[in-house]
């Protein structure tokens, strides 16, 4: 049986091997699909990460939200407490580079957004199944954050990131929707 770590490593490698052209095509389709969802249209406050190179680019999604007067909030990771806090982002200038080339908000300069204010949380991940279970980066931050989250959760994934069944633990939280470049996967 393949472990989460094996799936994680395999998918990171596959994503890094995508050509710029292919990655851009998938990102454009994912964005178009996202902007057509009711979850996007109805959301006033959206939580989303600042993507890394091998992830689907979130910059255009953030800019589109700003153009629609939606509030964007991005996570700050607190490793000692193993938790995430989200802060309002009004400009990319409000970010600082932290460990592993991650960009996060500068908490002293930004307004913290309580999770009950977030309408739509776009949850990152590497591998997904049709039931909404995901393999993330292994820290469990989102599973802890989402345990009592009341808004809609959605993950963006290419069809190549979908497997039949993600090995899930009791503490794993599934997302409401997995959106691929071909549309929403229906939860089983």
What gross morphology would you assign?
globular
Structural class: alpha/beta
Low-confidence stretches: none
β-sheet strand percentage? 15-25%
**Helical percentage:** 25-40%
Number of strands: 12
Strand order, largest beta sheet: 6-3-2-1-7-10-11-12
User: What pattern of helices and strands is seen along the backbone?
Assistant: HHHEHEEEEEEEEHEEE
Rg over C-alpha atoms, rounded to the nearest angstrom:
16 Å
| Number of helical stretches of at least 4 residues | 5
Task: Indicate the mean pLDDT.
Answer: 92
N-C termini distance: 22 Å
Largest sheet properties = 8 strands, mixed
Describe the structure.
The protein has 188 residues and is α/β, with parallel strands linked by helices. Helices cover 27% and strands 24% of the residues. The protein is built from 5 helices and 12 strands. It has helices spanning 4-17, 20-35, 38-42, 59-67, 141-146, and strands at 45-47, 71-78, 83-89, 95-97, 103-105, 112-113, 120-122, 127-128, 134-135, 152-156, 177-180, 183-185. The protein has an 8-stranded mixed β-sheet with strand order 6-3-2-1-7-10-11-12. It is globular and about 45 Å long. The model has no long low-confidence stretch (mean pLDDT 92).
């Amino acid at each position: 049986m393949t472990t989460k770590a094996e799936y994680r490593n395999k998918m990171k490698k596959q994503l890094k091997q995508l050509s710029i052209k292919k990655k851009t095509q998938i990102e454009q389709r994912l964005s178009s699909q996202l902007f057509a969802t009711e979850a996007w249209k109805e959301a006033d406050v959206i939580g989303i990460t600042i993507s890394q190179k091998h992830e689907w680019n979130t910059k255009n999604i953030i800019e589109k939200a700003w153009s629609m007067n939606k509030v964007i909030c991005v996570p700050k990771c607190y490793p000692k407490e193993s938790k995430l806090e989200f802060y309002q982002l009004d400009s990319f200038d409000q970010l600082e580079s932290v460990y592993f080339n991650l960009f996060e908000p500068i908490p002293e300069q930004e307004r913290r957004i309580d999770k009950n204010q977030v309408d739509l949380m776009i949850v990152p991940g590497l591998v997904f199944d049709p039931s909404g279970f995901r393999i993330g980066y292994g820290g469990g931050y989102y599973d802890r954050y989402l345990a009592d989250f009341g808004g809609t959760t959605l993950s963006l994934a290419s069809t190549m990131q979908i497997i039949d069944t993600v090995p899930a633990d009791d503490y794993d939280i599934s997302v409401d929707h997995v959106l691929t470049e071909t549309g929403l996967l229906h939860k089983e």
